[in-house]
Amino acid sequence: xxxxxxxxxxxxxxxxxxxxxxxxxxxxxxxxxxxxxxxxxxxxxxxxxxxxxxxxxxxxxxxxxxxxxxxxxxxxxxxxxxxxxxxxxxxxxxxxxxxxxxxxxxxxxxxxxxxxxxxxxxxxxxxxxxxxxxxxxxxxxxxxxxxxxxxxxxxxxxxxxxxxxxxxxxxxxxxxxxxxxxxxxxxxxxxxxxxxxxxxxxxxxxxxxxxxxxxxxxxxxxxxxxxxxxxxxxxxxxxxxxxxxxxxxxxxxxxxxxxxxxxxxxxxxxxxxxxxxxxxxxxxxxxxxxxxxxxxxxxxxxxxxxxxx
Length: 309
Description:
This protein is an all-alpha fold. It has 13 helices and no strands. The chain is 73% helix and 0% strand.
């Protein structure tokens, strides 16, 4: 009996229901192995726990914050500039607002900045990288990659500051400014992967069989880019949050009285060193979320590297 006839016999003996069960069991086993590899790195677990903790704070901020009314226009000069205490763990600011409550709500703006920016720049950058990498040495490649090189030549923070300074000062325009600076990194990443894969056997086989360019780009090449792209996204969340906080620090991002972490650091620096808690605790909040995403991203990078080795 030939090999093909044996495989046909095996496939004929397996019902669709049994095949579905086998696929689910294989999927659970694969996820179990991935979790085992990820959990062997304590720093990755700390990063994942930190990210989950920050997300919970941001989502349930109205229920977790001790003084949720302090994120709105609010003044309490009788309790202004109070140091950390049992009633205000992180102290109060210059007009009596609870700093801990404002930090918890500030995480909402930080995570919104990161999620919105990455949800825009990743599809754009990946698509341009796929097209330029597959149609290498064509006018597609020349135009896309030369524009990418121009954007990469300017530091992201400087470019974001330049764009945000000519727009109205709000969260939406600050996100737009960061988007304009961040897409080239994904274009360059996917371009490098695509140029390395375009001559591989599975791509050549798809071309010979008459597969469309859409099929080759998004069904053959794109799945091989998912791991590095997701790893970069987890690492970039921290960097986008830092740039967003930097824009707010200089007054180009979220505007008062909205509780943005960068704005809080900028407002508190005027009272250093005597009333240090106004700027130190918001700064530590930024460090916490950035460190969490970096550790989580490092864990994903090691996980994908182990699976590909």
